[in-house]
Design a protein that fits this description.
Number of helices: 4
Organism: Burkholderia cepacia (Pseudomonas cepacia)
Pfam family, one: RHS
Strand content: 35-45%
Radius of gyration: 24 Å
Shape: globular
Protein name: RHS protein conserved region domain-containing protein
Domain RHS protein conserved region: 127-163
Strand order of the largest sheet: 1-2-3-4-5-6-7-8-9-10-11-12-13-14
Amino acid sequence: MFEDKRFEYDVYGRLVRKLSGHGPAKELVLEYDDWNQLKTVVTKDRLGIATTHFEYDAFGRRIRKFNGSYASTDFLWDGMRLVQETYHDRQGEEALTYLYEANSYVPLARIDQGKPAANDADARDAVYYFHNDVSGLPEELTDAGGDLVWQARYKVWGNAVQEEWVAQVPLRPTATWGEVSVVAPTPTHVPRPQNLRFQGQYLDRETGLHYNTFRFYDPDIGRFITQDPIGLNGGVSLYQYASNSLTWIDPLGLMVLYRSMSLDEYGGLMKSGRWNINGSMEEKWFAESYQDAVKWGNTMGHGEGAVRVVQVDVPDDIAGKMHKDPHLDGIGPARYAEIEDLNNPRSRVTWSKEVNYSGCR
């Protein structure tokens, strides 16, 4: 129980029922398939009963969402990043395409497929630009002219407390002085909802849950609704999203690792695209947090005043077999990775940052 919310889990640690509110409560009933993927959600509230179904591909990515018998959404992926969603409902068909920062889950722009107007056969796409906070959470959208068209405010774990599309009011000059005056707004097409949340997350408005690639996230409590697929190898908290939502992200619902390295080692990695043996060590240590990687960089003294911290996405089967030290060098938890596993095509460097500080020897 949390605030006015009550939760029920099955023997596998999966959320199967959620009640919200006092009196006539809103109820979610959740069903899973044999691969622990959320299959169906039945929502019951004062408006009635609604059922939402999900379909996945062989890689575990959600490719379709059905809302009752009249609406569906198809999802298209580039690797593990959502690049397009296509709505099918009584209004017809409409596609939204997403662009991201390079090698990142931070959204840059959204392109809405144009629809011909009644008096104009040409369809014009609408482009909206994301303005995000430090964690990559979208706070505003602007149009091609730089005008604000959408904005939102959130609680600390990503639950929107205010969200709106801003009406664009046409302006015209007055006859005498050229002053700008407001005229009555004309009906315009309301864009499809803005559903991107924390990096790698997509809001399902039917349930209030965020789809997070391999798991679903509940922003009401800042936790996943199922346990980490890699078990305790992902940490002692099986449902945790991230320790700090402002600085940490978890776009896949799995583990990411961090390594502090000299600028020379980083340059070699970027040039060859492969991890190489340094000296006699055929393995490399990785921190489980960015902060600990920075501390190791300071302790090891890579370079002259600067180190590079890289973030690596590691598949669960590889992360699970790594040797783990719960408190390496008195700093924090770390994992020992084989060079062969690091050079596996499924292990990818997704982000890096240069850190400058005093104390590097």
